Amino acid sequence: MKEFQLKYGTNPNQKPARIYMANGADLPVEILNGKPGYINFLDAFNSWQLVRDLKKALGLPAAASFKHVSPAGAAIGLPLDDTLRAMYHVAPDAQLSPLACAYARARGADRMSSFGDWIALSDVCDLATAKLIQHEVSDGIIAPGYDADALEVLKSKKKGNYNIVAIDPAYEPEKLETRTVFGVSFEQGRQDLEISDATMLQNIVTKNKDISPEQRRDLIISLIVLKYTQSNSVCYVQDGQTIGVGAGQQSRVHCTRLAGQKADNWQLRHMPKVLGLPFRPDITKPNRDNAIDVYIGETPEDVIGDDVWAETFTEQPAPLTAEEKRAWLDQVTGVALGSDAFFPFGDNIERARRSGVTAIVQPGGSIRDQQVIDTCDRYGIAMAMCGIRLFHH
Q1: In terms of C-beta density within 10 A (0-12 exposed, 13-18 middle, 19 or more buried), how is residue 42 classed?
Q2: What is its EC number (predicted)?
Q3: What is the pLDDT of residues 344-372, one digit of tens each?
C-alpha cells in the first residue's frame, strides 16, 4: 500500500488528507481493522518509536499509552503486585504476560489522561494483553504483529471498528525528515539519538553519586519518554513506569509541577483508604477513575458530598484529609526524574523532592547550574547531566 486516504486531517474541516511515502515506496504499516485518522497516525508513529527504543535499551517488552501526540504513560514489562492490580483494575487471578504487565502499567500511570488513548506495543500482541485492552476505552493500537486469538479479541472492540495497525519492525526512515508549516518546508536530521546508561548517566555532578541500578533504569526510561513528548517536558518514573508526565508547558517549573501532581496522585492511589472506596457495582471503570481523581484532589465534596455520594458509592466515604495525604507522600522515596532541557532555577528541585525524587537527569548548561546542583546537594539528591537536549515538536 503506497498511500492511505484519511477521512480528514487534524480537524474535520482540514481536507483532503492522506499518508504516503514521498519516495514512492510502500507504507511500512498495514491497517488490519478500522480506519485510523490523522492524529491516530501521529500518535501511532511517535508511540511506536518510544516502545521500540525502550525495548532496545532495556531488553524488556514495552508499552505506551498516547494522547494528542504525547505519552500519558509508558512502561516496561515488570510484574504487578496486588496493589497495582487493584489500582489498574486488573483481576487478582488474571494471567499476565510481561507485555500485558507493560500495558497495564502504561495505561495505569495516568488513567484519566489515557481515556481514549492510542496504544503502542513493542512486541507481537498476545491474548493476555488483548484481554486487558478489550475492556478499556481506546482509539487504536500499533504493534509489530498480533497473535490470531488476540486479533479476534481486538476486532470485537467498538462494534468492530477498532483501529488496528501492524508496523514492519524492520522499517527505518530516511535520515532526513521534512515537514511543511504555513507553506514553508523545513528539513532536519531525524532524531535518532540512542539513549543508554553509558551515554547519558556518566556525568554525576552532585555530592551524592549513588544511583542504584533500578534508578538508572528509570532515568533511562524518563529520557526515552521525553524524546517523544511535546516540549517543554518533565517525566517522573518509578519501578519501571512513568508516574507523571508534564508535556507542552511554556515554563520548566510548570512542567515539574504538572508532572509532580500526577506523580503524587499515582502515589495516593496506593492508599488503603482510596483502594477501599465503596463503589457501587454499576459504576464503570472510567467513572471510578474520575471519582478517585476528584476524591484525592482539592474538591472531594464533588463526589462524597451529602447530596451526591449515593450516585457513586454504596456508603458515604470519609474525606481524605490534607494531613493524611501529606503524611503518605512524605514516605515516598526513590523516584527518578528526567527533564528534556536544563533546569534554570532550583525551584524545580524543590518541587521534585516533595514528590520523593532522589535521582535526576537533565542536560545542564544553564548559567545557574551551580544553584541547581547546590539545591540537589541540600537534599541529598543525585543528579546526572547528560549534555543532550531532547526537545520534541
Answers
A1: middle
A2: 2.1.2.3
A3: 889 999 999 999 999 999 999 999 999 99
